[in-house]
Amino acid sequence: MRVLAAMSGGVDSAVAAARAVEAGHDVVGVHLALSTAPGTLRTGSRGCCSKEDAGDAKRAADVLGIPFYVWDFADRFKEDVIDDFVESYAAGETPNPCLRCNEKIKFAALADRAYALGFDAVATGHYARLEDGELRRAVDADKDQSYVLAVLTADQLSRAMFPVGDTPKEQIREEAAARGLAVANKPDSHDICFIPSGDTRAFLGAKIGIRPGAVVDADTGEVLAQHEGVHGFTIGQRKGLGVEGPAADGRPRYVTSIEPETGTVRVGSAARLDVWTITADRAIWTSGQAPVGPIECVVQVRAHGGTARAVAEETGGGIVVQLSEPLTGVAKGQAVVLYRPDEDGDVVIGSGTIAGTSADRP
């Protein structure tokens, strides 16, 4: 089978490519150039989109003895990931750029080009498993990336390979060292790759500009502070509110709602963060077929967040999720991912983009 290995320059994708070669596939490595101004990328081998990454990927490909290319996807990345990220924050949402990159770049733009060139599959270093056509959580729960892959369609999953999802991360590093791959001890990246400073608020402020508004007490309606834009806030945020001191009862305040039209950011007690119902649009079902009627499931609303049991129902391209226990800090723009409610709870059923929430108990 002809396999295109997406090589980010990190240890996971290098080992994924090595395993594809070892399995007997005809493998070609490719690194994605995602910045129109490479000099603005991070330095220091952080593991994702730094200046050194293309070179690290090339050296890994040389060790494996496979052809290697760099493909320029900078324009697509700006349009589909960076611009989407900025627009979502301006609209009071909290997007996940890694999820959007997987959906729009790695398994759409990249995969489409790969298939046009005659490749049968795309292999990546994501921590997830594919078994009998089902997307499953990785063996290493701390590294599991099934959440950010739940936006993939059945067709995309049928031509994807995740060779490292069955192995704990520490063993992947040991394997890389044994194979002579110089990236064996390269640090993981935990930041947004296109924000080299790590200061998301400053990045968004430079893109969006000043859009003043008020921070308001959700219980009393009292104006507590002024701010320069709703892009500086997310649901559940506790710090950086610009508010002097806690509430009258001594308890901390949290962002409970964001109203981009008026620029109003409401803050209140932790109890106000409880969500019992989630509505989502852009529903994607990993089997290719929407379920008929309500289904029991386990849902997750952040890449490394907790889960809750729920009942979900498809609603004309969207999803309504009724939770059996509340989740907190649920923000528009995030994904709600549905897992099968069996003993393991590791099979992805589908996903949607959160469009609304309700604190009313079902």
Q: How would you sum up this structure, described in words?
A:
The chain is of the alpha/beta class. The protein is 25% helix and 28% strand. The strands form four sheets. It has a six-stranded antiparallel barrel. Strands 3-2-1-4-7 form a five-stranded parallel β-sheet, with helices on both faces. It is globular. The protein starts with a strand and ends with a strand.
Order of helices and strands: EHEHEHHEEEHHEHHEEEEEEEEEE
How can the largest sheet be summarized? 6 strands, antiparallel, barrel
Q: What Rg is obtained from the alpha carbons, in whole angstroms?
A: 21 Å
Distance from N terminus to C terminus (CA atoms, Å) equals 50 Å
Number of E-type strands? 17
Percentage beta strand? 25-35%
- Spatial order of the strands in the main sheet? 12-15-14-13-16-17
Quick summary of this structure?
The protein has 8 helices and 17 strands.
How is the topology of this model organized?
Elements: E1 2-6, H1 11-22, E2 26-33, H2 53-64, E3 68-72, H3 74-90, H4 97-116, E4 121-123, E5 128-131, E6 134-137, H5 146-149, H6 154-158, E7 160-161, H7 169-178, H8 200-208, E8 213-217, E9 223-227, E10 254-259, E11 264-268, E12 275-285, E13 295-300, E14 307-314, E15 319-327, E16 335-339, E17 348-358
Parallel strand pairs: 1-2, 1-4, 2-3, 4-7, 8-11
Antiparallel strand pairs: 5-6, 8-9, 10-11, 12-15, 12-17, 13-14, 13-16, 14-15, 16-17
